[in-house]
Amino acid sequence: MPTDIPTDVPTDIPAHMPTDIPAHMPTDKPPAAPSSRPSNVPSRLAAMDGLRLVAALMVAAYHFLGTPTPHFWGQTELRDFAPVLHEISRYGWLGVEFFFAISGFVICMSGWGRTPGQFTVSRFARLFPAYWCAVLLVVALVLAARLGHWPAATHIDARTVLGNLTMAPGPLGLHLVDGVSWTLWVEARFYLLMAVLLVFGLTYRRVVTFCGAWLLAAVITLEADSPLLDEFVLTRYTGLFVAGIALYLMRRFGHSLLLWLLFGFAWAYELTVLHIRVADHATVPSGESPPSWTVCAAVLTLCVALLALAGAGPLVSLRWRWLITAGALTYPFYLVHQSIGIPVAKGLVRALPRLGPLPSMALAVLAMLGLSLLIHRMVERRLGHLLRHRLTLDMRPRDRTAELPVPRTG
């Protein structure tokens, strides 16, 4: 995923505060004592990185064990060989919603103090390198399956590949090469809204006003039943993004009645429209009941409670380095776990039938974590750094006199 959620996010709050802050808030934040954090520990919200991995594993569990359509691993149906895991994993799709709430928090934090150009460069350099790599790896896997006369579920042609490289294959009417990439298009539209707000600058009052206006626009869009407006307003996910933003404002400016009301309205709205997403997952095999809205609401509320603890609560003080590493692997793992991981697991079941489905899945997940580490180190770090550097240079104002022809002499 989802998520596309960025990792290059500063977590310390700058000492300078905007002028339009609540009257009870201090205008600056004293620097932390030198002994409050070891010098070798990065300045990050480590717990937030851990939550991102939790969200990715929820989605992976859904795709491996909880999908509503029958998948057969050998000759055995999922609900037959792992009924408890299957029942729990049926709700793993809520990890996508969890990603969006985390994104609201992290993207607001990432964009604070940046210009629209800096924000755009940061998001482009963060998302596209790993995404391009994942798409090309899936294409290579499908082509290899064709050469080996193995079954390949993904339709691949040149037009499909080119459209998928834009990260917007759905609006272009194309099949998704990487099945989870639909969430990136949702994220991209959220980034667009944030970039528009960045044109005016992020301040306490502007962000609160923006969130309130966004919730109102979502309600109006639902009442008008306008698919066109919904493309921009994102009615299914508005409450998630706004809840995350409200929690970040609490972290930056402290708790206040206004922010808790904003968070409460956002969450009431989100749980009210959650039935739409539940209905999207209501197609189940015979003998199974559809997902319960009550269970979905409880799981999602628990996820956001953890986000509150990690972003503006006691978990902020966590400094476990392994969580930071986990956060770095989350995005590439999210991209490859379904389109590559599931074929690997099924290949292991066919090649080693004595191994069994669950061990095959576990090995496939470990293999995808290893692949994610390679993508992070070999692609994200190198290509992401290069893109960020070059695009930053290209965004600088250019001297128009340099474009004038040099006059000839003599």
Summarize the structure.
The protein is mostly helical.
Number of domains: 1
Biggest sheet details = 2 strands, antiparallel
The backbone outline, from C-alpha atoms, is: globular
Provide the residue-averaged pLDDT: 83
Euclidean distance between termini CA atoms: 63 Å
Structural class category: mainly alpha
Number of helices: 14
N-to-C SSE string, H for helix and E for strand: HEEHHHHHHHHHHHHH
As laid out across the biggest beta sheet, the strand order is 1-2
Percent helix range: 55-70%
Number of E-state strands: 2
Which spans have pLDDT < 50 for at least 5 consecutive residues? 2-42
**Into which percentage range does the β-strand content fall?**
under 5%
Radius of gyration: 23 Å
